[in-house]
Amino acid sequence: MKHARWFAVPAAGVLAAAGVMSVAAAPFASAASELGSGGVALQVHGASSGNWSGYADTQKVGYTFVEANWTEPSYTCDGNSPESSAIWVGIDGYSSSTVEQGGTIAICSGKNQGAHEAWWEMYPTNNVQEVFAIKVGDKMFASVTYSAGKSQPYDIVVKDLTSGKSLNKLEACLAGCLNNSAEWIVESPSFSTGTAYLPKFAPIKFTSGFASDAVNGANPVSISSFTHVSITMTGAQPKRAVPSALTSNGEGFTDKWVSSKP
After folding, report:
1. Which domains are seen in the chain, by residue range?
2. 3-state SS of the chain?
3. Which of 29, 114, 201, 209 is 20 to 30 Å from 106 by CA-CA measure?
4. Predicted TM-score (pTM) of this structure
């Protein structure tokens, strides 16, 4: 999905993200409205976005790797539809029109938070795809690696470190990927009916946030090692979700929910 990215095609100028799942997997079928493909951020104006909250490394270099850990949060849904939240890492989407990404998502059903799923996407090539179910409190890991010269150079990995389940997708870029940013994002996805409401969540802590511009993702360094920007999600209220300052080692931050309405 794009910065601000959605789980559906964003408005003009928005970046996209989300990844494709295994061949046997199918797109989310339980949402009240259709969950579309991920996308770039709706439009990032300075350090704000209509659908992204988190951090992006933004140097105009060829990023080859991004990774992070987090704990899957519990959501409090207020019954609006669509209402959903996604957590992911990815390459591209901040200042380009593709996103190569993987992470977790929950889609509310009324006031129930519904199932939590691991997913991946190569936006805009395909729709967001679910791969396996996860649980609130599970320790998650996700990464994207780019290896030049391969027919399928993008390796998208999402692991549930608690259950041992994982996905690993090798994908080609069919839409002009530039590899010019790396992201660590909480997103309010988009659906056929528009941008989702953002369900309330306890602060989400990203740890071990690393990126690389070296060949095959070698020697990754902290988020703070590259030119970076913090992104505040905005909407009907001035703030929907806000990232903290980076931790002292530059490798993590905490994302905080503020309000729901897009």
Report:
1. 48-257 (2.60.120.700)
2. CCECCCCCCCCCCCCCCCCCCCCCCCECCCCCCCECCCCCECCCECCEECCEEEEEECCCCCCCEEEEEEECCCEECCCCCCEEEEEEEEECCCCCCCEEEEEEEEECECCECCCEEEEEEEECCCCCEEEEEECCCCEEEEEEEECCCCCCCEEEEEEECCCCCEEEEEECCCCCCCCCCEEEEEECCEECCEECECCEECCEEEEEEEEECCHHHCCCEEHHHCCEEEEEECCCCCCCEEECCCCCCCCCEEEEECCCCC
3. 209
4. 0.87
